[in-house]
From TrEMBL:
Pfam families: Peptidase_S9 (PF00326), Peptidase_S9_N (PF02897). InterPro entries: AB_hydrolase_fold (IPR029058), Pept_S9_AS (IPR002471), Pept_S9A_N (IPR023302), Peptidase_S9_cat (IPR001375), Peptidase_S9A (IPR002470), Prolyl_oligopep/macrocyclase (IPR051167). Keywords: Hydrolase, Periplasm, Protease, Serine protease, Signal. GO terms for biological process: proteolysis. This is prolyl oligopeptidase. It comes from Winogradskyella endarachnes.
C-alpha cells in the first residue's frame, strides 16, 4: 500500500443565518498499489496495452486481495463522511412503508406481491378468489431462502390449472438461475431442482410441463466465461432434467445468443424467438395440436423486432417494427405467416407503440415524449376509447387473461409514488385500488419537461424534478441520470432514493437520450455503433443546459448511470472532466475493446459494434472506451465506481480496470474510489438492506464532494432559523 493522495476538501457552508463559515475538512486516503503486468494485444496492426488484464480473473487470490484492499480504502473514506449515518436513517425511514403489487388470478386463488416495508425481498401472498383479501396468507417468502436476502426470487410461472408453480431463484445476484417446482396446494417442492439456467422464461404447455432456455455451462468461471449458444428445452413433469427435450438451438444453423420459447394462451402454438443480439429476432411457430408438426418460419432475419401478441384460432396478431420503426400490429394466418401476407391491424403512428391484451381487447400503449397514452381496441381493430389516466406519467400493466372482466394497472411519475388502479374493461372506468402510505408529500415537489438542443441540433427531451420554490442560483446539488441505449426508454417513475435526494434540495434530471426507445427504432439506431457519440453529446448538452439555465453549476453537478449508463458516465467524464464535480458510474461497460469476450457481451454488438469488426470500428471504440481514455495529468471529477462481485451481466473487471486507471493517473485532490458489493450482481434481486446502504454511500459521497459538511436540508433549516 502506498499513500497516493491526501484529500483536502475546503468546505464553505452556512452554519447560521449570520452567514458564518466553517472550513477545512481533511480525509486521508490510502489506495492499494495495483500491479501493472504488461499485456499487449495487436488489433489491426496497432498495439494496445492492457496492464490490468489480471483483474479479469475473478477466481484468483490476487483479484480477491485487490477487491478487499479497495473496499477498505473506500469504506475508510466513506466512514469519515459526517452525515452518512443520517442519510441511511432517512432512507430507512422513508423506505419503511407497505408496498403491494397488482393482484393476479391463478387457478382457484388470487395472488399478489407484498413487502411490509424493509423486507429484503417481496413476499407472495394469496387468498381464495372471491374471499376478502384480508384473508390472504403467505404463499412463498423469498426472505426464508437465505438470512441476508442474497438469494432472490426470479420469475414465476403457473400451470394452466394453477396447481403447479415453477419459479426461479438467483444466488448472489447472478444471472445463472435454478428452477424449483411446487405443488401449490401443499406448497411442497415436488421435483428435483433444475440447474444451470440463464436468461430464461418458463412457459407452460397445459399442466404437463414447461419450456425454458439456457446455455451449456461454460468452461472456466461461470461469472465471466463467454456464453453464446442459447437453447430452448421442454421439461415434462415427473422426469429428470437430463431427459429434457432440446427443442431449438444447439446446431450450427440454429446458433443464437438469445432464444425463448412461449406457448399461446390457448395451448395451440409454441412460439420460438431467436436473436443474435439484443435487437432484432427471427420468429418461428409450431402447431402443438398436431403431433410431429414442424416449425414454420414467420420471419427469417434479425433486421427487426417481432413477437406474437395474440391468436384467435389460426389468426395471428403480431407486434413488429419491420417497415414500421414505431411499431404496428398486423394480422396473418398461421398457415402462411410470412411478411407479404401481413395486414395492418393497428397501423404505425408517430408515437412508439407497446401493445398488450386483456379481457378480449387490445391495449395500445404509446409514448408521447416519454409519457404514457393508452388506447383500447376491440378484436376488429375498432378504437373503443382512450383510457383516462390519473395524470401525466407512466402507466403499466394493461394485461390480463382473455376471460377477465377487470385489470389492474399502475401509475407513477417522478413525484407520485406508484399507485394501483382497477379498470373495468367493458365500461372503461378506473378506480383507485391501492395508494401507498408514505412519508412523502408530492405537493411539495414539481416535475417539468424541457427540450434542449444537442451538439448536432437534435431536440432532446428532459424531465427536471425538485422542490417547489427552488432558487435557480447555480448552487443546487444536481444528479443528471442517463442511459441512452438498447432501445430502453426512461419514463417517469417514483423512487424512494430520489425522494431523499430531493428532500435535501437536490435536483433530479433525466434526459431521453438517443440510443433509447422513446422515439422508436430510428431514435435507437441514432445512438448505436458509429453514432454512439451522439449519446454522449446528448448527455453533455443536458448538463450544459442545466448549467446555462442556472439550475446548477459544474461544482454542484453529479452524473450517474448504470450498465450501458455506466459507459455513458465513463465516456462523458473522460471527454469532459471539467463539466461535473462528481461521477457515479455503476456496473458499467467500460472496456469497449473486450466487452464482447465476457459472458453474453457479444450480444450487445448491435448497439456497440466490436473491435474485431473493422479497423474503422476498432478506432471508433478505442476513441471513447473509458478504460482506454483515462489520461495522465488530468483532474477527473470525484468518482465513486460501484459494482458487484457476482455481476455476470457486465463483469466487474470493467469497473476494476477503470478504477485502477483513474487511481494511477488522477491529478488533483478529487478521490477516485470503487465500492464493490459482495454477493451482489447487476442489480436485480439486491436486498433492500444493501440497496439502502448503497444509496447512503452514493449520496454521502456526492454531497461531501460538492462541499457540504452538513446535509443541505440542515443548512437550510439553520438559515431559516
Amino acid at each position: 500500500m502506498k499513500k497516493l493522495l491526501l484529500l483536502t476538501l475546503v468546505l464553505s457552508i452556512f452554519v447560521s443565518c449570520k452567514n458564518e463559515t466553517e472550513t477545512l475538512k481533511t480525509i486521508s486516503v490510502d489506495y492499494p498499489n495495483t500491479n501493472k503486468i504488461e499485456v499487449i494485444d495487436t488489433i489491426f496492426g496497432e498495439a494496445v496495452s492492457d496492464p490490468y488484464r489480471w483483474l479479469e480473473d475473478d477466481r484468483s487470490a490476487e483479484t480477491e486481495a485487490w477487491v478487499k484492499a479497495e473496499n477498505e480504502a473506500t469504506y475508510g473514506y466513506l466512514d469519515n463522511i459526517p452525515y452518512r449515518k443520517e442519510l441511511k436513517e432517512r432512507l430507512t425511514k422513508l423506505w419503511n412503508y407497505e408496498k403491494i403489487g397488482s393482484p393476479f388470478k391463478e387457478g382457484d386463488y388470487t395472488y399478489f406481491y407484498k413487502n411490509d416495508g424493509l423486507q429484503n425481498q417481496y413476499v407472495i401472498y394469496r387468498y381464495k378468489t372471491g374471499n376478502d383479501p384480508s384473508t390472504a396468507e403467505v404463499f412463498l417468502d423469498p426472505n426464508t431462502f437465505k438470512e441476508d436476502g442474497t438469494i432472490s426470487l426470479g420469475g414465476t410461472s403457473f400451470s394452466k390449472d394453477g396447481k403447479t408453480l415453477a419459479y426461479s431463484i438467483s444466488e448472489g445476484g447472478s444471472d445463472w438461475r435454478k428452477i424449483l417446482i411446487m405443488n401449490t396446494d401443499t406448497k411442497e417442492i415436488v421435483e428435483d431442482t433444475l440447474v444451470d439456467i440463464k436468461f430464461s422464461g418458463m412457459s407452460w404447455y397445459k399442466n404437463e410441463g414447461f419450456y425454458y432456455s439456457s446455455y451449456d455451462k461454460p468452461k472456466g468461471s461461470e461469472l465471466s466465461a463467454k456464453t453464446d449458444q442459447h437453447k430452448v428445452y421442454y421439461h415434462k413433469l415427473g422426469t429428470k432434467q437430463s431427459e429434457d427435450e432440446l427443442i431449438f438451438g444447439g446446431t450450427p444453423e440454429q446458433k443464437h445468443r438469445y432464444i425463448y420459447g412461449g406457448v399461446t394462451e390457448d395451448d395451440k402454438y409454441l412460439i420460438i424467438s431467436a436473436s443474435v443480439s439484443t435487437s432484432g429476432n427471427k420468429l418461428f411457430i409450431k402447431d402443438l395440436t398436431k403431433p410431429n408438426s414442424k416449425l414454420i418460419t414467420i420471419l427469417n432475419h434479425t433486421d427487426s423486432d417481432i413477437s406474437i401478441l395474440e391468436n384467435v384460432g389460426s389468426k395471428l396478431y403480431l407486434s413488429t417494427n419491420l417497415n414500421a420503426p414505431n411499431k404496428r400490429v398486423v394480422t396473418v394466418d398461421a398457415s402462411n405467416p410470412t411478411p407479404e401476407n401481413w395486414v395492418d391491424f393497428i397501423p404505425e403512428t408517430k408515437n412508439v407503440l407497446s401493445p398488450s391484451t386483456a379481457g378480449g381487447y387490445f391495449f395500445a400503449k404509446y409514448m408521447v415524449d416519454a409519457v404514457s397514452k393508452i388506447l383500447q381496441y376491440d378484436y376488429d381493430g375498432k378504437l373503443v376509447r382512450e383510457v383516462e389516466l390519473p395524470g401525466v406519467g407512466s402507466a403499466g400493466g394493461f394485461g390480463a387473461k382473455k376471460e377477465e372482466k377487470e385489470l389492474y394497472y399502475s401509475f407513477t411519475n417522478y413525484v407520485t409514488p406508484g399507485s394501483i388502479y382497477k379498470y373495468d374493461i367493458e365500461s372503461g372506468t378506473s378506480e383507485l385500488y391501492r395508494k401507498p402510505d408514505i412519508d412523502f408529500n408530492p405537493e411539495d415537489y414539481e416535475s417539468k419537461q424541457v427540450f434542449y438542443k444537442s451538439k448536432d441540433g437534435t431536440k432532446v427531451p428532459m424531465i427536471i424534478t425538485h422542490k417547489k420554490g427552488l432558487e435557480l442560483n447555480g448552487k443546487n446539488p444536481t444528479i443528471l441520470y442517463g442511459y441512452g441505449g438498447f432501445n430502453i426508454s426512461l419514463t417517469p417513475s417514483f423512487s424512494i432514493a430520489n425522494a431523499v435526494w430531493m428532500e435535501q434540495g437536490g435536483i433530479y434530471a433525466v434526459p431521453n437520450l438517443r440510443g433509447g426507445g422513446e422515439y422508436g427504432k430510428a431514435w435507437h439506431d441514432a445512438g448505436t455503433k458509429m453514432q454512439k457519440q451522439n449519446v454522449f453529446d446528448d448527455f453533455i448538452a443536458a448538463a450544459e443546459y442545466l448549467i446555462s439555465e442556472n439550475y446548477t453549476s459544474s461544482d454542484y453537478l453529479a452524473i450517474r448511470g448504470g450498465s450501458n449508463g455506466g459507459l455513458l458516465v465513463g465516456a462523458t467524464m473522460t471527454q469532459r472532466p471539467e463539466l461535473m464535480k462528481v461521477a457515479l458510474p455503476a456496473v458499467g461497460v467500460l472496456d469497449m475493446l473486450r466487452y464482447h469476450t465476457f459472458t453474453a457481451g457479444a450480444g450487445w454488438a448491435y448497439d456497440y459494434g466490436t473491435a474485431e469488426d473493422s479497423k474503422e470500428m476498432f478506432d471508433y471504440l478505442k476513441g471513447y472506451s473509458p478504460v482506454h481514455n483515462v489520461k495522465e495529468g488530468v483532474e477527473y471529477p470525484a468518482t465513486l465506481v460501484t459494482t458487484g462481485d457476482h455481476d455476470d451481466r457486465v463483469v466487474p473487471a470493467h469497473s476494476f480496470k477503470f478504477a485502477a486507471e483513474l487511481q494511477s493517473k488522477q491529478t488533483g485532490n478529487n478521490p477516485t474510489l470503487i465500492r464493490i458489493e459482495t454477493d451482489a450482481g447487476h442489480g436485480a434481486g439486491t436486498p433492500v438492506s444493501k440497496t439502502i446502504e448503497q444509496y447512503a454511500d452514493i449520496y454521502g459521497f456526492t454531497l461531501y464532494n460538492m462541499g457540504f459538511e452538513v446535509l443541505p436540508s440542515k443548512t437550510e433549516e439553520k438559515i431559516k432559523g
